[in-house]
Amino acid sequence: MFALADLIALSLLPVWRWRLVAEQLRGGQTPADILRSHCVDGRRLRTRAAAWTSPEWVMQQAQAAAGRAEACGLVGLTIDDESYPPRLKAIIDPPPVLWVSGQVAALATASVAIVGSRAGSAYALSVAERLAGDLAARGIAVVSGLARGVDSAAHRGAVAAGGVTVGVLGCGADIVYPPEHVALAAEITTRGAVVSELVPGTVPKPAFFPRRNRIISGLARAVVVVEAGEKSGSLITARCALDQGRDVLAVPGNILSGRNRGGHSLLRDGARLVETADDVVEELGLERMEKNAQAGTGHFSTDPVLAVLPPGESADLEQISERSRLSVPELLPRLLELEMAGSVRREPGGRFVRAGRTC
Length: 359
Description:
The chain is α/β, with parallel strands linked by helices and about 350 residues long.
């Protein structure tokens, strides 16, 4: 495993370089070599995302960030850590380090993201809270952005149901924004987690919030948009989900108010219509997850791919696609995630076999 400080240093590079950083790590380069290749010795450069200079200066900042994290009890999950969420690791630009406040194990639970307007209508808040509560009661974690409006309603619904929920911040995980959600964040961390890609002490800035949307979708099996205007940030999350091979679903709203035009646009483009948690469960093939949760097995690993791959039996892409009813473009990122998690093993001839343990 790589040293925490080395990967923190990579996370301090400008965020627009993280895609290349991920490619270099996957290609076998060491963090030290990657850092040197991205830095300019002896001269400080300022970008929109970060200030950075020689490798030595960046390492000093990384060590300071590690000290702040230890002081406030944050866990830094590096991209090569076994506990790093495999779904997030599979996206094209995963954070080199994911900072976690709360229960790291919550990130391993199969999850659905619920997002929507910060100025959500009473209808949207009610739907988000009910939908999140029903999903959480089925053993499905709810991911959202801890923002005002629909996000916070979704978190509250999951907490009220005694379930797991994960909040993704656009600031350091030691800072709760907006500040009125400090109590909610504390409730979330008792069973779930509050996470961020930004080093501890990073204050919220407008540029950070669109970036964190890829993490919300990256952690989840699917994104449900409850209410979104034509220029809503929730549509950014939906686009991220599509780019990552995730499912996008949307809740219909009042056509007279115009507050859900973005959501209706998603529905016109083919997003699955959601009225209840049953619609989400059915769309993702999670019926068995519900039965396992009700039986008290604590086993939430009911990926539709694993469900059609009996242990010891190999299958090619076409066979898995036919059995799971997933298209090949949908199937490929899921197979990659399962392979990274050790649940599926690739064999010669383009075949896949279910491994001994599940994610």
